Amino acid sequence: MARPSVSRKVFVGTNTVFLVFLCAVTLYPLLYILFSSLSEPESLLMYTGVLYKPLGFSLESYRRAFSYPLLFSGYMNTLFVLAVGLAVNLTLTAFGAFFLTRGNVMWQRPIALVIVFTMFFNGGLIPFYFTVKDLGLYNSIWSLIFPTAINTFNLIIMRTGFAAVPRSLEESAEIDGASHLTMMFKIIMPLSLPTVSIMILYYGVAHWNAWFNASIFLRDSYKWPLQLVARQVLLQNDTSRMAAGAVQGSELAISETIKYSVIVISTLPILVIYPFLQRYFVKGVMVGAIKA
Predict the structure, then answer these.
(1) Average pLDDT of the segment spanning 95-106
(2) What gap in Å lies between CA 115 and CA 119, rounded to an integer?
């Protein structure tokens, strides 16, 4: 085996150093937030510079954050939207993709063009608001599920994944008397698990991070999802109720650590789940890049 040349060693070494630096730059903000949330409030407030470890150790900010009623209700609302929304998203997207992959459907191409048209043009925020309001979904948690039940880009990806299933399998099922529902749920979807998994990832992350529609359609704070509650805490500095009862003069310090703890609480679940779906991420991107 030939020894690598000097230029090859320089290239590999430069890439290694660059990637290590890139990982450090990417990882440090996450570690900073985690270390800050676990630090002593007064020590963190007086500290300046790079943070390599928690300044002391305190879980007081987490205790106060979990005692905040809106944080618990936000978690419950987000989990409800995530569970029900994913079921609605996957069901409707799968039916739409199955329809668009049938070869004997009347007006299939014009319908597909109309669907793609909505990906590039929409009526805007005001018509969207009045549509949701006229449907009776205003101030209802269902306004976070039904108006965004199908994402056109995700529909195209799932359609491409379904189209990759050999037509011969469907023809064999038809000969055996299988219905369209049987073919979709017992043949096409099991053979398209990478595509279905990437749909779960895309829709799940979108539901978990969503806050804008909730800020428009939900008037009652106890119906807010987690990310809107976190936004209220972080951007509007609404930590007074969580910091209440702190020692005089330390409310500002505990408020800062509460903000960091809220960030950790709101992002940790998706960071834990993501690695299990990451292996499907590249497959899903490649499926979306193939022209059917």
Answers:
(1) 84
(2) 7
DSSP codes, 217-282:
H--SGGG--HHHHHHHHHHS---HHHHTTPPTT-HHHHHHHHHHHHHHHHHHHHHHHHHHHGGGHH
Alpha carbons 199 and 194: distance in angstroms, whole number: 9
Confidence of residue 290 (pLDDT cuts 50, 70, 90): very low
- Residue 155 backbone phi and psi in degrees, to 5: -60, -40
> What are the structural domain ranges in the chain?
6-66+237-279, 69-221
- Residue 41 sits at φ, ψ, to 5 deg, of -55, -45
Contact 67, 242 (CB under 8 A): yes
Has residue 284 got a pLDDT over 70?
Answer: no
Q: What's the rounded Cα separation, in Å, for the pair 146 and 99? A: 20
Q: How far apart are CA 7 and CA 15, in angstroms?
A: 12
Task: Return the CATH superfamily for domain 69-221.
Answer: MetI-like (1.10.3720.10)
Report CA 257 to chain centroid distance, whole Å. 25
Cα four-point dihedral sign 47, 243, 64, 259: negative
Question: What confidence category does residue 89 fall into, taking pLDDT thresholds of 50, 70 and 90?
Answer: very high
When pLDDT is averaged across residues 113-141 and rounded to a whole number, the result is 89
- Of 69-73, 87-91, 126-130, the poorest mean pLDDT is in 69-73
